[in-house]
């Protein structure tokens, strides 16, 4: 991350997060394993994800300010999340990050940081 103290700063703040999210969700919607879990109107999901990732990666508490405590595991419990779906989600994020000009080390750091929560949400065998 070089001269940055947070991933949030290293990716360019909210606008950098938004670019990642905008590259990510078209891949999610096209993915046969996870696309059907998402609503057709993906814009509100993208906005919440931008707020959440900004906060998650060390930025301001935008998500909590608007939506309360993230409680991400509880929010994901209604959806059948298998190990394969967690990996598909991470694969879509990897592909989205590959489209950015972020350094490879930063892309890997982001994926490592997201892999814990992605696997924590698994609620189906």
Explain what this protein looks like in three dimensions:
The chain is 65% helix and 0% strand. 23% of the residues are buried. It has helices at residues 7-11, 13-30, 43-56, 62-67, 72-76, 83-98, 104-120. This is Globin. InterPro entries: GlbO/GLB3-like, Globin-like_sf, Globin/Proto, Hemoglobin_trunc. Keywords: Heme, Iron, Metal-binding, Transport.
Report on the biggest sheet.
none
> How many domains?
1
Order of helices and strands: HHHHHHH
- Which consecutive residue ranges, at least 5 long each, have pLDDT under 50? none
| Overall geometric form | globular
**Distance N to C terminus:** 36 Å
- CATH C-level: Mainly Alpha
Mean pLDDT: 94
Predict the CATH topology: Globin-like
**Architecture, CATH level 2?**
Orthogonal Bundle
Protein name: Globin
Keywords: Heme, Iron, Metal-binding, Transport
InterPro entries: GlbO/GLB3-like, Globin-like_sf, Globin/Proto, Hemoglobin_trunc
GO molecular function: heme binding; metal ion binding; oxygen binding; oxygen carrier activity
Which key features would you list for this structure?
Globin/Proto, Globin-like, iron, oxygen binding, Hemoglobin_trunc, mainly alpha, single chain, 125 residues
What is this structure, in a nutshell?
The protein is an all-alpha fold. The chain is built from seven helices and no strands.
Give the helix/strand layout:
Elements: H1 7-11, H2 13-30, H3 43-56, H4 62-67, H5 72-76, H6 83-98, H7 104-120
């Amino acid at each position: 991350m070089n001269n940055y103290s947070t991933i949030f700063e290293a990716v360019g703040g909210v606008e950098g997060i938004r670019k990642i999210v905008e590259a990510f969700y078209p891949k999610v919607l096209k993915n046969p394993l996870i696309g059907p879990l998402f609503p057709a109107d993906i814009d509100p999901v993208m906005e919440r994800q931008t707020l959440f990732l900004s906060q998650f990666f060390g930025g301001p508490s935008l998500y909590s300010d608007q939506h309360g405590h993230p409680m991400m595991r509880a929010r994901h419990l209604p959806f059948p999340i298998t190990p394969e779906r967690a990996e598909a989600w991470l694969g879509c994020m990897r592909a989205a990050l590959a489209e950015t000009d972020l350094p490879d080390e930063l892309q890997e750091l982001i994926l490592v940081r997201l892999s814990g929560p992605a696997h924590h949400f698994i609620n189906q065998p």
